[in-house]
Structures are given as structure tokens and as C-alpha cells.
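Section 5.1 Outputs to date
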Amino acid sequence: MTYEVKKSEDEWRAELSPQEFRVLRQAGTEPAFTGEYTDTETVGVYKCRACGNELFRSETKFHSHCGWPSFFDPADSKAVELIEDRAFGMVRTEVRCARCGSHLGHVFEGEGYPTPTDQRYCINSISLTMEPVDEAPES
């Protein structure tokens, strides 16, 4: 796939911390229950840490108790790219940022969570930034 944001691996290494690079560019996984957004309930927009693409919104985030932030739907279906992942002897669906190709996590279906889509986008906190949205009512 051709991505809007194109950088060499050296450019990504210069911009990302070693941990961010391992997850975003090498499809790594952060340890469970260690990410800054795992239990966050702040109202806001979640963006790709590598390129700033809007990926998820807080109203689709839910507590799955799996150790990583979970969402039941992306902000826009074109925001993410889904790719079959056969690593580690499993068949899963990898979630990547559609703008820069960075690894975000995986999506799972049919796990019984009470969500409108029956999907769990299990996303590494380190692959995201969160921009809070002011909840104050307009006067």
C-alpha cells in the first residue's frame, strides 16, 4: 500500500523513541497494563503518534480489561488499514494507520463485549496521542 506519509526507517528512528519505533514501525506490543491510555476516561480524540492521523474517539473507547486501550470502532473507516497477520502461529487482523502505515494493534470480533459492533480494537497506548476535548456546554 502507498501511504500519504512516507519516511525512511532512519527518519522514523530519528523522530520516535526506541519503544515507539519498536511498536509503530516493527509491529511490537507494549506490555499489558502499562500504557498511559489503558484506563483513561478523558473525553477526546486519539491520534497516530507517528503522523497525527485521527484514529479513534473517546466515545468508542470501553473497558475490556485486556491490558490495552480498547475501542469498538475507528473514528472513520478510512483512518485504519486492516491486514491479515499470521505471526506466532495465529490468524489475527492487524490494525495500521492508513496514513503512514504504522502498527497500532489488532482487532478482534465475537468476544461477547456489549458493544454496537461486537469488535475490540486492541490498541497499544504508545502508538497513540490523545487530544482532550472541552466538554463545557456552549452558552
